Each structure stands twice: as C-alpha cells, then as structure tokens.
Amino acid sequence: MLTDLLGIPPQVLFGQLLLGLINGAFYAVLSLGLAVIFGLLNIVNFSHGALYMLGAFATLALVQFFGIGYWGALVLAPLMVGALGIVIERLLLRRLVGVDHLYGLLLTFGLALVIEGTFVKLFGASGIPYAAPAALSGGVNLGFMFLPWYRAWVVLASVVVCLATWLLFERTKIGAYLRAGTENPKLLQAFGVNVPMLTTLAYGYGVALAAFAGVLAAPITQVNPLMGSNLIIVVFAVVVIGGMGSIIGAIVTGLAMGMIEGLTKVFWPEASATVIFLVMAIVLILRPAGLFGKTA
Amino acid sequence: MKLFNTLAASASALALLASGASAEISGGSVKIGLLTDMSGTYSDLAGPGTIAAAEMAIEEFGGKVAGAPVELVSADHQNKADIAANTAREWGDTGQVDAFAELVTTSVAMAVFEVAKQQNKIALVSGAATSALTNDACIPTGLHWTYNTRAQAVGTGASIVAEGGDSWYFLTADYAFGEALQKDVSKVVEAAGGTVVGAAKHPFPASDFSSFMLQAQASGAKVIGLANAGNDTINAIKAAKEFGIVDAGQKIAGLLVFLSDIHALGLETAQGMQMTVSFYWDRTDATREWSKRFYDRTGKMPTGVQAGTYSSVLHYLKAIEATGSDDTDTVLAKMRELPVNDIFAENGVLRSDGRMVHDMYLAEVKSPADSSQPWDYLKIVRTIPGEEAFGPLSESTCPTK
Predict the structure, then answer these.
(1) Main localisation, per the record (chain A) (predicted)?
(2) What are the tens digits of pLDDT across the range A144-169?
(3) Which one of A16, A128, A227 has the shortest CB-CB distance to B207?
C-alpha cells in the first residue's frame, strides 16, 4: 500500500481527508460569497472576514437577547448581516463605482479593521463559547475516526448552500441577469433591468453567505472578534486559485484546498499554513486567470 | 531687556531647583515603556490588563518616586519581534525610557533583550515564558518575573506523571516558546519515568485543531500535552472535547493556561483540568483586595501575567525610591538586595541570572457546581516552592550569572 510506504496508516489518512473536507466546506462558502461579490461589483471585499465574524456574533446575540437558538440563527443571522451588507453597499461602496479597484479594496479593508477593532475592544480576544445544538451533539465512530455530528452537518449544510447558489446563478432568470450584469452592465440596463438594485442584492447575498459560514463556525471555534482575520487571507488564495468571480471555481477549489491542507497537516504540519499559498503561486504561474477563470 | 533678564534668571533658578529635586533621576522623570499585545491572541492574558496593573503600581507611589514623576508609555507590539525591537530602540534612544516592561511573546522578549543589552536598560519580563531568558539568552539587565516554561513543566508535568499519565504526545506552537515548553516538559516527564511518544508542530496562531487532535489520538499516548498558549490552547481544548478525545480516555494537559482562558472556555468545558499558575486572585486576603481593585478598573480578574507586571514595576520603583537614583546598575543592585514582597510574591528572590524566584501553585479547575461566584474557577491543590519550580541557580546556563 502506498499509505503504508509513507508510514501513515490508512485510517489516519481517511480521517485527515475528511477533516480537510470539513474545513474545505468553510472555504467554499466563504470564497463563494467573495466570488459573487467580485463577479458583480468588481470589488475585492476585504471585509468578508469581519462580516463572517459578525454572523457568529449575531448568533450569540440572538440567543442571549431573544432566546433564539441555533436553527433560528441559521436563517436570521445571515439576514441581519446581509441587511447590514446592503447598507454598506448603498452608503459606501456605491460611491466607488467607476474608480480604481484599489479604492474598493482599501475601503473594505479599513471597514474590516474598524469592525474587528471595535469587537476586540468590547469583547476581548479570547472569544465567547457557543454550544452546538443538542440535536447535533455527540458523534459517530466511523472506525477510522470519531466524527462529531455537528461537523457532518457543516459539510451537508455547506454543500447544499453552494449547490443552491450555483443553481441560482446558472439556472434561473435572476441568475441570467446577474451573469449578464457581470459581462455588460450598460447593455443590461438598456433592456430595462434595474442593475444598481441587482448589485446591491448581490452584495447583500455575498455578505449573507459569509454570515452563514459564521453561524456554522460558532459552535466549533470560539466566537472570537479575530476569527475572520485568520481565515480571510486563505479564502482569498482559494478565490484566486479558483479564478476570480467563478462560482463553480470557488466551490470546487474551496473543498480541494481544505483537503490539501488536511494532508499537509499529516505529512508536514509546520507547512500547513503555507501550502495553499504555494498552490496559488503555482497556479498563477501556469494559469494566471485561475483554474476555472476565463483567460482574458 | 530687564524683563528678559528676569525671565532668564528665574528659568535657570527653576532648572536648578528641578535638578536638585531629583539629582540622580535622568531626565527629571522615571519613564517605563510597556510593550504588550493589545489586540491579538495574547491580549486577554496580557494586553490592556498589564497597563492597568502597571498604573496601579505607579499610583501606589502617588505617581512620584524619589521626588520625580513616574511616566508610563505603552505600545502594541502585535506579537512581532521587529515592531517591538524598533519601538524599544526608539523609546530608549530618544524617548528617555528607563526600563521596558511586560514583553509577552518569547520572540518579542528576546528581541527587546538585544536592545536592552545595547542600551544598558532594565527589561522587566512578565508575559514571555521561555526559560531561555534566564539561561542561554540571558542578559545582565533582563529580569524574568512571572513564570517560565520550566516552572510550568514542574507543576503540571510532574503531577500528571505521578497520577499515571506516563506517555505523552505534544501539540506544540511552532515558534521558540512552544519548543522551549515542549523541551522543558519532556525533561520533567522523562525524569519522572514517563516517555514522550511524539509531537506535532502547529502553525501559530492556528484556529482548527481537529487534525492535530486526531494525530495525537492515533499516537495512543495517555496524555496530550498542549505546548501553546492563549487562543491556541482554547481552540485545542474545544477540539479535544468535540472529537471525544477525553471521553475515549486520553488526558489533555494544558501546560500554560491562564485564568482568562478558563473564563473564555467556561467551566463546563474546562472542569477538572490541572494547571500551574503564578497567581490566583482568590488565594489570600491581600490578593483578593488587590484583584478586586483590578476588577473595578478592567472588568476582569487578573491573570498571573498582569499581577506579575504590577509586581515587577512596583519592585523597580521601590529600588529607585530606596536609592534615589534611576541608574541601571544602582537600581539593579537594590532590586536584588530587596526581597520581593507584595500581593504577587512572598519573599521572592531576584537572582543574578535574572530569575525572580517565587512560589508557584498547582491548581485544578472547579466544576460548575463547585463554583460559588463569578470568576470562582480554581482550587489550589499544592504550593510549589520557588526553588523546586525554577531550579537552583547552579542549573542556570546563563553566562553572566
């Protein structure tokens, strides 16, 4: 067996691949949101990590102030943060239409620093625990590893949301408008489609996806003001590898990078934080537009 | 012209007066530069709380020592050694800072040690943990106050081996501190008859520990030692619980756990865990009284790093008060001469290798049922005498001891 040759028992390898898939599910949902936003607004949304964190904090706030538990939060938190996203788009990003990309990047990056800084000041950096819902506590012994039910649910929920988004973009009329908007917004507007409204909604949706990932993450890690800043750079690498703005690219690359990272944690744990960037560098050299991107 | 002369005369008289008031105090004031992690992974265990603690020490002197005002300046080093070293150098060169304080994160402390050595200024280390600071990496003016990796190892490591946890696997933060902690604990485990079966180094900081936990589980070791700190420890403990590691019979040993970590985890998750602490607020009347004041300022009970910062600054000021000078060598000699007696240490001794030797405490995290009030988290199981925790001076490899 190859695995025996490498000195790693197969069950350990399966376990790590599965864990990689779970992390990949987070990467997929987050990079999907980024891809949607970039596709339509041409904005590199650096506040994505902060909005993901807000999703987790919204989950916490819902249970503390309104007694609304996990399942309610799964729907409400993305709506709340998505609404905030719409406000951000209307008030701030709207003003940057037509100027250099760099301004959007700087604005969203600054926004992320302000949001995260405020939350560190208010809640400290160690975070607050959030218990997984009772229905998903415990787990199952797969023989090669113990799989917590909650982690299995994360993969399921992420894949469903990713597929739904893909279908929305590829198979519905709204999706067709959205894709047309990416190609040629002026022409689309000439056909009587309200393009500014479309971009606002697309930003809100991308942000809601980030918040959804935040709700999924809340019971796993601490609900922590810095939870997004640790993740966002990796997610950007995923988007670049998949091809900026490519929906399917974001999903597939997210899952794949999670698994590559998982394998690295077995063979060379110290390098697990860098492996995705290595892949990014290689992809950029060989295919500058990304694996699923259209070559310009 | 006459007015000018009068002004000039009174100005020089004032200058004379000022220098007379504190003849031996350079620049007319004592300035302490505190470098800490204000917003990152260590900001709860050190961070703003250490500034509050240093201020409390200064206020105890009424803001003045040997007739000169005491000033505190602080900066966020973001856990980056280069930022810390540059800030310290600037403070020392042009900011008239007399001593550096706190310095959480091993790499930061080591970088500031270089600066302190060049500028011959005192470095009062509280948050950084590596025992190298008073061994190979020691400097004549570097003082290591709160704990070190050896003391943590002696407390938690030895007691777990004694309870039958004789095979260990380490999850180690991949930088100087993690390695030092793993090395010191390994020594203690092996000396007590235990074995180390393996280790995995994780990136610092890391958020997902499930993969490393699974590797630790596969190793079959009885004890999984967490050679990390702050949020890394919190996330690792959470992952261990989620993946049923503890239920399956393996024991998790947090080797550098702080009160702020227990607060963040909650007793439900953390209960039963053993930890070695340098300070616990609910130990004596004096610690309770001081901690209560700290709580009123910050809204949190102090960690050992925060109480240690208070103690080190207080002791530094005591030495200046006693000698009437802020000259590094004079103050250092006095600090070594005076025993350290405050809410943090009882009869602490400052050794020539820079180590402040004081008692440490082995504690156990209470169950939610045993906890009777907010922040009532720990039960002190054993007092570890200073000599046992930090080892004798003869053990130190510091060349200038």
Answers:
(1) membrane
(2) 888 999 999 999 999 999 999 999 98
(3) A227
* Inter-chain touch A221–B263, beta carbons under 8 Å: no
CB atoms within 10 A of CB B81: 18
- Chain A residues in contact with B377 by the CB 8 A cut-off are none
Does A258 reach chain B within 8 Å, measured CB to CB? no
Residues 6+ apart with CB under 8 A from A7: none
Task: Provide the 8-state DSSP code for A66.
Answer: S
Of the candidate ranges A167-176, B43-52, B303-312, the one whose mean pLDDT is the lowest:
A167-176
How many CB pairs (< 8 A) connect A and B? Answer: 109
Beta carbons of A16 and B218 less than 8 angstroms apart? no
List CB contacts (< 8 A) between A23 and chain B: 208
Per domain, the residue ranges of chain A are 21-225
Note the pLDDT tens digit of each residue in B174-200. 988 999 999 999 999 999 999 999 999
Burial class (CB in 10 A: 0-12, 13-18, 19+), A210: buried
Whether residues A266 and B215 touch (CB distance < 8 A) is answered with yes
Pair of tokens at residue A30: 């987050």
On chain A, the residues whose CB falls within 8 A of the CB of B269 are: 129
Domains of chain B are 29-147+284-358 (3.40.50.2300), 150-277+360-390 (3.40.50.2300)
A15 touches chain B (CB under 8 A): yes
- The candidate with the shortest Cα–Cα distance to B227, out of B158, B319, B129, is B129
Q: Is A62 on the interface with B (CB under 8 A)?
A: no
Q: How confident is the model at residue A296 (pLDDT cuts 50, 70, 90)?
A: very low
Task: List Cβ neighbours of B201 (8 Å cut-off, separation of 6 or more).
Answer: A269, A270, B172, B173, B174, B178
Chosen for mutation from B44, B231, B256 (greatest number of chain A CBs closer than 10 Å) is B231
Measure A236 CA to nearest chain B CA, in Å: 17
Closest CA relative to residue B105, chosen from B211, B182, B204: B204
